[in-house]
Amino acid sequence: MLIAFIIGFPGLLLLQAVLQAVCARMDARKFPPPGDMVSIPGGRMHLQHSGSGAPAVVLEAGIAASSLNWALLQPRMSAVTATYSYDRAGFGWSTSENRTCTLRRMAEDLHELISRMEVPQPYVLAGHSFAAYILRVYASRFADEVAGVVLVDPLTPEEWIAPTRAQQARLRRGVWFSRAGGVLGAVGVIRFCLWLLQRGNSDLPRRILSMFGARAKETVERILGELAKLPPDVVRLIRERWSNPKFFWTMAAYIRALPTCAAEVSGCDIPSHIPVTVISGAHQPEVRMAEHVALAGHSMQGRHIVADKSAHWIHLDQPELVVEAFREMTQALPAER
Questions:
Q1: To pair with 192 at 20 to 30 A between CA atoms, which of 51, 90, 117, 206?
Q2: Rounded CA gap, 47 and 37, in Å?
Q3: Please, which residues bridge with residue 280 across strands?
């Protein structure tokens, strides 16, 4: 009986992996990319374009997020100007070539995508959280193309360049959890849990989450709570994307590279002639708030705003605040550059 069990368990895993692969192929047909797939060196990137007008705004998502996270903001922004959101390599519908997570590469990918889509210059860059790292590198390298930068509750280099023991432990847990998610995703467990959640059954998913510890459970539940602010059809697409183990492997690489990225962006300032607006969540501690003020203050046309009704996900809690910040920035821009 023991031998039968040992033989049977790998067979069961193999069957689950085959079923996951079949379901993933069905998902690809059922949930095609909502935007355009654009070929760039090293892969294909997914981009959503809506609205018209100038200057255009290009939206850069947080560390493990995609264009779908702008689902509340992009329609509002599109009523004002041409708006572009996209998925970085490995997230959403964009392909991944298993390249290293460097800000230089991410900025180059974005620049190539913008060039191929012929986004009119100069354009405004807007990003949430980790996106601030990418946009700082981007604006320093391609300053002549950038009309302004809006940073929504940005990460600062000081947060992660020299992680404390507690932060190092947090990173290790994040990488381990993400890799475990990749394994569970490959055999369909993540898909099954998300299917249960979609039907209002959270018992089993909560028990599985508890196996990873209280902090992992709390973090995932907080993220799910934030995503619940998005329209149901968008939440469904996000859950479908999360059913693909690619999401978890990519997230693990990003979390692992966070201190390296912080070191890469350290000292990489946005040129002072470029207008910069920094919007901070009201939850930020004094030290982070001071860093946000300094980030805005480096610009000759810098502005710092506190979103008093939001925590970290300001674009979900107060999307109109981000739109208004863009309006005010562009109204102050010269007619021609």
A1: 90
A2: 6
A3: 306
